[in-house]
């Protein structure tokens, strides 16, 4: 991905493109392990979480992550659940309007964070059924980390 900050249309295109044919417990495990593998290679101090239909299917906390990362995961995931869109995209839409999520969403910032790192798990024919979330890197890096893993996972699912 380019080093520049993605535009709202680019972020929306990512969401349209990253749709899975299915998402089982086994898929959650495989995606979670892929994220852990990628994080270990980068020595990224992240926590990783995958939820489906209100149930946590995967969680890992790598060296250097902290309990704060789990709190960020919860806040970012709530944004995905509420808006049905990537947490970074939600924040970008507010910024594009000349405001911030915190100023204009009317949601408790202790419960919701429109920062990068949580991406909807979208299944063909079903829509958004969950979220995959990473916390521990700067927000755009968290977002890109999840997107890159979803792209690889989708490529494996198709192949």
Automatic annotation (TrEMBL):
Pfam family for this entry, one: HbpS-like
Kindly list the residue ranges recorded as spanning the membrane: none
Name the InterPro entries for this protein.
PduO/GlcC-like (IPR005624), PduO/GlcC-like_sf (IPR038084), YBR137W-like (IPR010371)
| PANTHER family in the cross-refs | PTHR28255, UPF0303 PROTEIN YBR137W
- Which family is annotated? Belongs to the UPF0303 family.
NCBIfam families per record: PRK02487.1-5
Protein name in UniProt: UPF0303 protein OG350_14910
Organism of origin: Streptomyces achromogenes
Question: Lineage from the top down?
Answer: Bacteria, Bacillati, Actinomycetota, Actinomycetes, Kitasatosporales
């Amino acid at each position: 991905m380019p080093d520049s900050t993605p535009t709202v249309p680019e972020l929306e295109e990512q969401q349209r493109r990253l749709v899975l044919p299915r998402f089982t417990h086994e898929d959650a495990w495989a995606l979670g392990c892929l994220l852990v593998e990628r994080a270990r290679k980068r020595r990224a101090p992240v926590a990783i979480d995958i939820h489906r239909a209100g149930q946590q299917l995967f969680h890992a906390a790598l060296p250097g992550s902290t309990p704060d990362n789990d709190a960020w995961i919860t806040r970012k995931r709530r944004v995905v659940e509420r808006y049905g869109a990537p947490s970074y995209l939600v924040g970008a839409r507010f910024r594009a309007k000349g405001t911030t999520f915190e100023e204009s969403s009317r949601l408790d910032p202790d419960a919701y964070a429109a920062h990068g790192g949580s991406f909807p798990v979208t299944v063909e024919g079903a829509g958004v059924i969950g979220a995959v979330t990473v916390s521990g890197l700067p927000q755009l890096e968290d977002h890109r980390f999840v997107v890159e893993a979803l792209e690889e996972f989708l490529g494996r699912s198709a192949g």
